[in-house]
Each structure stands twice: as structure tokens, then as C-alpha cells.
Specification:
alpha+beta; three-stranded antiparallel beta sheet; elongated
Length: about 100
């Protein structure tokens, strides 16, 4: 189950569970859309994978107790600003490779 981390790892922008601006990689590294587009260029600085929009967990118990009330979002903040210079070197190596081929 996704943690639904509360902030962008780079800029620490709030990304509440209902945010449509949250992006995650397959390891659930979480960044805001602006950082993914402008700083990371769709390359996760932690694993090299690409990003996808984070799904929104329902806030209402529509069916089977599958909602935020039973499975709340994480409150653990992972603020680890990206070293932009180091990421630029990493990007140089792999950004031209599509995420599905990395």
C-alpha cells in the first residue's frame, strides 16, 4: 500500500493525500510535479526511474474500508534536497533513455 508521503523530497512542498501534483517513482520517492519537470527532468535521483502521478486514495468509505480513514497517509517527512550539480551529471548519462528502458 502506498505511504502517500506528505511533502516533496526536494522542495518540501506540501503534497496532501488529495494532491494531483504529487509524482512518485516505483520506489515511491515522492516529488511535486514542478520539481520532476524542472529539476529532475523525469529522472528519479534515487533510483534513475521515471515518475508517474500518485494515485489519490478515497477520503470516503465507498466500499470495503478502503479509504483514508482506515489507511491514513504518512506523516513522515523525507526532505532530502537534490544536489542539482550531481543530478545534472547523472542526467547526462541516462536522461535520453526512456524510463521504460532504463
Amino acid at each position: 500500500m502506498l505511504e502517500l508521503r506528505p511533502t516533496c523530497e526536494h522542495c518540501n512542498r506540501a503534497l496532501p493525500p488529495e494532491s494531483t501534483e504529487a509524482r512518485i517513482c516505483s520506489y515511491e520517492c515522492t516529488f511535486c510535479a514542478e520539481c520532476v519537470d524542472r529539476v529532475l527532468e523525469n529522472v528519479c535521483p534515487n533510483c534513475g526511474g521515471g515518475f508517474a502521478p500518485r494515485p489519490v486514495r478515497p477520503s470516503v468509505n465507498w466500499r470495503g474500508d478502503n479509504y483514508l480513514g482506515k489507511d491514513p497517509a504518512s506523516t513522515l517527512i523525507k526532505h532530502r534536497p537534490v544536489d542539482v550539480a550531481a543530478h545534472a551529471k547523472f542526467l547526462f548519462e541516462i536522461k535520453k533513455i526512456p524510463p521504460e528502458e532504463r
